[in-house]
Design brief:
There is one protein chain. The protein is mainly alpha-helical. The chain has eight helices and four strands; from the N terminus they run H-E-H-H-E-H-H-E-H-E-H-H. A two-stranded antiparallel sheet has the order 1-2. A two-stranded parallel sheet has the order 3-4.
Length: 159
Amino acid sequence: MLPDVRQTLVNVGKQRTAEARGGNRRRNPWIPDSLKEAEAVALRIRIRLKPSPYREYGYRHPNSTNRLLFVSYANLLGFDALNLVPELLFKPLQVIVGGRHGATGQYEAGQRLFDLSPADEKDFFVVEGAGHYDMCYKPEYVNQAIDRLIVFYSKHLIT
């Protein structure tokens, strides 16, 4: 276990105790609120964070607080979104990823999802040149994904 993970769990335990004793609930930003904050975090943890698709005007939902209960980190640290894929994901599957691998690990997660699924009909589509964040808002990449989904849904959802 990484030292930062261990310390986070210790801090979560302290926060739970404080809340059980009537203390205030602590809420932390889920992702950096600004590019300046993202750059500071990136220097500390050596990855490139890009909050713009989620936090900057034009992309963010006006009701988004971008806050997470601190004690939720205990659940998030142990969460594996793919652990039940072999048992549950047997319907047709379309996985779409950006072709540029990055610090988010989304390409690798998409490949793992595809590999774990026992579905008879599945497709892995790579949008060449796109990174994870590009897939959120850049029309030249989003449109390729939509075109692929139209074909997939036309085949599997129309009765």
